Amino acid sequence: MALSGVEIFKLLPKTNCKKCGFPTCLAFAMALAQGKVELAKCPDVSEESKKLLGAASAPPIRMFPLGTGDKAAKVGGENVLFRHDKKFINPSVFAINIKDTLSNDELTKKVEEVITSEIDRVGQKLRVDAISIEFASGNAQQYESAVKLISEKAPNTIIILNCKDASAADAAVKIVAARKPLLYCATEENAEAMANIAKTHKVPLGVYADGLAALSSLTEKIKGIGVEDLVIDSGAKNAKGILELNTQVRRSALKKSFKPLGYPIINFVLREDPVLEACIASVAVAKYGSIVVLNSIEKWKNLALFTIRQNIYTDPQVPMQVEQKVYKIGEATENSPLLITTNFSLTYFIVAGEVENSKVPTWLAIMDCEGLSVLTAWAAGKFTAGKIAQFIKESGVENQVKNKELIIPGMVAILSGSVEDKLEGWKVTVGPREANAIPTFLKTRSA
Amino acid sequence: MSYVIPKETCSGKVLSPDFGKGSKAVKIGGENALPFHSFDGAIPNKPVIAYEIQDIFPDDWPDTVKNQFSSVSDNAVKWAEYCQNELKAQAIALRLSGTHPDRGDRSPQDAAKTVKDVLAAIEVPLIILGSNHMEKDAAVLVAASEAASGYNCIIGKAQEGNYKTIVAAALAHNHKLIAMSELDINLAKQLNILITQMGFDKERLLTDPMCSALGYGIEYTYSVMERIRLAALMQNDATMQPPILGDVGMYVWKVKETVATEAEMSEWGAVAERGITWEAVTATSMLIAGANLLIMRHPKAVETVNKVVEELV
Ligand code: SF4
User: Fold this and answer.
1) What is the CATH classification number for the domain harbouring A360?
2) Which one of A275, A302, A348 makes the best mutation probe of the B interface by having the most chain B beta carbons within 10 Å?
3) Counting beta carbons within 10 angstroms of the beta carbon of residue B266, is it exposed (0 to 12), middle (13 to 18) or buried (19 or more)?
C-alpha cells in the first residue's frame, strides 16, 4: 500500500538540508507520496528507511523497456483500471508472430511489412513495434538462422524470442541480447533454465502458466531466481479469457497489491480471420494487454489497431487538441465556404462530422484555443475578434478562397461586427449555434 | 501469497427491457456486473445487433456498404426482408432519413406508411429512428409511434430539445424509447430524469450517450459509457440503469478511413476491408464499454462482431 506524505516524512532525515531540491523534508515527502520525485533525490536517507520506502513505493505493476534505441517501448507501470480515472501510461506493443519454418524470402517479406508499417496519425508515428519469432521448426539451428536474418533486416524492431526450448533459446538470445529482446517464455517445465538465461543476459522474461493461480506461483519462483522484469501470460486466447483474466490481473495488482501478478501482460490473439483478429486485439488493447501478438499486419488492419490504441491511451484529463490549421473537407475549392471553430477535439469531431454529412466541400479553420470549446474559449478570451483576425491573416487562407467570407459559430454571433472590423476586406457571417444544423446551413447556401 | 480471484459484487443492476413481439422478441441488459465480467455477476442477456435500413436509397453511404444492399435498398420493405431472411438479423433499425428537410422532406404520414409496411413484412423487432432533425423528428416519431402501435418497438431519439412530444407518443403506444444526449454523463442522467418525470417508466428507456467512430472521439463515448455503467452498478444510481445503445454505423460510414480509396491513401490499404474493420472495431469497443444494443450496417462487420460476442459471453 502507498504511504501518505506524513508517513514518509517520519522516515526521512528531517534535517531540511534542501539537497533534494525541496525547501523541507516535508515538502519532499509530499512530492514523493504523489509520485512526483524519486527517493534517490535525497542523498541522506538511511538504508533502513530506503528499504521500507522502496517496498512501499514500488509501482504496483512493474515497468521496464523492451528493445533499445528510439524504437524501444516501455511496458507496465499502469495505475488505474478505467481510463477516465487517469491516463493509461504505456500504449500496448503490437507484435507480429513469424514462424521460423518460413523460407528466407518469406521471412524477408514479413520483415519488410513490419518496417513499412509506420504511419503518421494526428502527429504521432505509429508502427508494428515488435516481431515475435516462433520456434516452430523444432530445429535449433534453423531457429538461430531465422533470428539472425530477422534481426539484421529489422535492426531497430523489438524482438520477442518465442521459444520454449531452453537450449535453442540460449543460442538465439546470444545473437540479440544487447537489444533487450523479450525471452518468451518460462513455463512450469523449463522455468529454471529460462530464468537463468534471462538472468545471464539481462533480458526480460515472459512467464506462461495456465490460469492465474499457477502463474502467480511461477512468477514468485522466477523472482526468487533473480529475474524481475517479467511479462505474464495467463494462457488466455479468446476474447472472454483476455477480458476476464487481464481484468483479474490488473485488479489483483492495483486493488490487492498482489505482487506475484504485478507485471505487464502479453496476449497472443493469433486469428486466421484478420477482421476478427482486429476486434479481439482491440479488446486486448482496451483491457490491459501490454503486448498484443498478431497473426497478420495488413495495412488496413494496422490503421484500425493503431487508432484504437491511440484513442484508448489518450489522456482523459487533457482535452485532446487538434492541430491548428485550415482543414480541407471533401473536394473544397476556391469557391467553397470557410468555417471557423476552436481546436477542442470534440468540437472538431462534431463539426467536421456534420460538415461531412452535408456533402458540401468546405474549408474548416481550426484555431488553437488550448483545447477549449467555443463558448469556454470565448469566455476565457482565447476566441476573440482580435485573435480570430490574426489567425485568419496568418493562416494564408486568403489565397485559398475567392470569396472572402468567414462563417463563425452561432454561439459567438456577438463577435461578428468586431471580427469584420479587424479583418479588412472580409465579410463575416454567423453560422448555426448547434453543429447538427450545419448540413442544412451549408446546403441552403450552396443551393 | 496465494491467489484469490478479486471479485467485485455490484449493488446495482442494468434494467432489461424487451422489444418486439412473440418468439422473435429480444431482451437486452439485466446484468449486475461490468460488461462481460461474468466472474463478478450474472449476465443474462447477450448484446444485440440491429441492421440499419433506411426509407430512402442510401446515396450517402460509401460504396463498400452501399453495394451490399444494392438489390434491395430502393425499397425499405425489401431491404428489411433481406436483412431478416438472408442476413438473419436479430433486429432491424429503420432510419427515416427521407423525412429530413434536406433529404426529401417526406411527410410524417409517408413515414408512418413505411413503418406499417415494414412491420407487416418482418417478424423481428423494429427500432424506429428519426432523421436527427429536432423539429421534424418530433412530428415524424409521433406518427411512426402510432403506426407501430402494439408492436413494442424502440422509438428514437428523444433529445433535450424535442423529448416531450416523443415521450408522450411512446407512452401512448407502449413503445420503448431512446434518450439521446451528447457525450456527457450528466446530460444523459438529466434527460433520463426529465423523461421519467413525465411518467415514462425508466424500465422502458435506453440511453444513447452519442456514439463516435474509431479515430473520431471514440474515447469520449467509451469513457462516458463506462462511467454510466459504473454509476448504474457500483453506485446503484437508478437513473443510469437503462441499457445503452451504440448507434455505430452512421458515425463510422462517413469518416475518411471508410471512404478514401486505396488509390487516394495507399498507406491505408484496401478500402473495403478497412471500412469493415473500422465498423467492427468501433462496435467491439462500444460493447466492451457497456453497450447492450448496437445499430450497424455492413454484414461482414455484423458477422464478425457477433463472433466476438459469442467469444465474450
Ligand atoms: S535531501 Fe533529504 S534530508 Fe535534505 S531536505 Fe531533502 S529530504 Fe530532507
Assistant:
1) 3.40.50.11600
2) A275
3) exposed
